[in-house]
Amino acid sequence: MNDTVVVGVDGSPSSLAAVDVAGQEALLRGARLRIVHAFSRPADLDPMIHGVLAGAEQRARDRAPGLEVARTVASGETLTVLRSESRHAVLTVVGGRGHSGFGDLLLGSTVVQLAAHGHGPLMVVRGRPGPEGPVLLAVDGSPAGAAAAGFAFAEAALRGAPLVATHVWNTWSEPTPYEGPADPLNVVVDLDRLRERHQRLLEEAVAPWREDRPGVAVELRLERARVRHTLLDASREAQLVVAGARGHGGFAGMLLGSVSQALLHHADCPVAVVRGTG
Known about the structure:
Elements lengths: L3 E5 L4 H17 L2 E8 L5 H19 L5 E7 L2 H9 L4 E5 L14 H8 L4 E4 L9 E4 L4 H17 L3 E7 L21 H22 L5 E7 L2 H8 L5 E5 L13 H9 L4 E4 L4
Parallel strand pairs: 1-2, 1-4, 2-3, 4-5, 6-7, 6-9, 7-8, 9-10
Antiparallel strand pairs: 5-10
C-alpha cells in the first residue's frame, strides 16, 4: 500500500506553502513526505539542492515533528517527473503558483494533464492562507464523483471536520421532455420531478460512505443554480474542496471537467481532484 505523500517544489512561496500542507497530510495519514524537484539545467541544480530543497525539508520537519521526509531530484519535464512520482504516492500536492517548473502547472494545460492522467488524487494548494471550515464535496453522480466522495469522507475523518456534500443542478443541462410534436413551444419541464431526481442522486452518492464513516458529520445541500459559481462561492467557507476529474455533461474529449478546472483556477481554498476507477 502506498504510504508516501509527494509534493512538488520549485522554491516559490506557493510551493513552500504546498510543503506545509503536504506535511500535514502525511502526518494525518502516518505516511512519509517526499519533496520532489524536476530540473532541466544542471547549472541550477547545486543551489537548489543545498538551498531551496534543504530549506523545504527543514521547514517540513519543523512544522511536523516526527515526520519522515525525503528528497528526490530528477532530470526531466515537470509533468513527466510528477506523473512518475505519483505512481508511488497516496497523494500528490502542488502549489497554485510559482516559478518556472512546478509553478507553471496552473498557467497552462499541465495541471489538467496531471489531474487527468496522474496516479492517485492531486491536491492543488491555493486560496486563502490557513483555511478553516468543512470539507466541501462536489457531487455529480459520475464514476469519478464516486471516487471523490470516498476521498472527501476520508479527508473529513482525518481532519475531524464536517463534510458538506453539495449537488448543484439546473434545467439548462437537463434532457428536456416534449409533449406532442417536437416543437420548442411545447416544451414541458417538471421541476418537482427533476428536483426529486437530483435529491436522490445526492443521497445515493454519499450513502455508502456515510455507513462506512459514521463519525463524519454530513450536511446535504441541493441547489438549483449555476454550478461553477455556486461551488466557487462555497469554497470561501471551506478548508478543502473535493471534485471528480470528470463529471457528467462535458465533452467526450475533455481531459478534465470544466467544473474541476474552474475550481483549480479560482477556488478560495485547496482543491483535490480525484480520478474515477472506471
